[in-house]
Amino acid sequence: MDHDHGSHGGHGDHSGHDMPGMEPMCSMNMLFTWDTENLCIVFRQWHVRSTASLVFSLAAVLVLAMGYEGLRAISRRYESAMTKRVQAMPRQNQASANQRAHIIKAALYALQNFYAFMLMLIFMTYNGWVMIAVSGGAFFGYLLFGQETSSTKDNACH
Question: What is the pTM of this model?
Fold first, then answer.
């Protein structure tokens, strides 16, 4: 069995350094790092190539994390408004209105989970700058949208 880690026909060092005629590759870190060279965030197309793109990407991550808190706030407001609206209806109409509201609440719940898992994937770049941006977005999002929410987290992910 050959365990040589040299460069053999397309295998070998893919450290992300430029080679003639090749695009720099995304670095895949599985350990915490502050390095931003060839950082890709979730998608190959979201490739940080300069200081400006790093700053823009960190701002985008911050806004995305804030958006998650906004979505949670919208979901809470919808649920509260629908509960009041259904309770104000005649008894015979409440069951069907409750069922329709439950379908919309389920869609909002699914969207929140998708959003949370995407933020988790962003966090799992293991890049300290990106992790700070996600946490900063959670902080600012909670400041903007969490006035009526406990600071205790009830979601398993993110």
Answer: 0.77
Between CA 26 and CA 23 the distance in angstroms is 9
Each residue's pLDDT, cut to its tens digit, for the chain (158 residues) gives 444 444 333 333 444 445 555 677 888 888 899 988 889 999 989 999 999 999 999 999 999 999 999 999 999 999 999 999 999 989 888 899 999 999 999 999 999 999 999 999 999 999 999 999 999 999 999 999 988 777 776 654 55
Pairwise CA distance, residues 132 & 76, whole Å: 26
CB 42 within 8 A of CB 49: no
Asked whether 72 and 144 are in contact (CB, 8 A), the reply is: no
Using alpha carbons, select from 34, 17, 24, 39 the residue that is nearest to residue 122. 39
- Rounded distance, CA 151 to CA 158, Å? 13
| Total residue count of the chain as it appears in this document | 158
CA atoms within 13 A on the CB side of 78: 17
Residue whose C-alpha is closest to residue 68's, from 136, 8, 148, 152: 136
**96 CB contacts (<8 Å, ≥6 apart)?**
none
**Number of Cβ within a 10 Å radius of residue 155:** 10
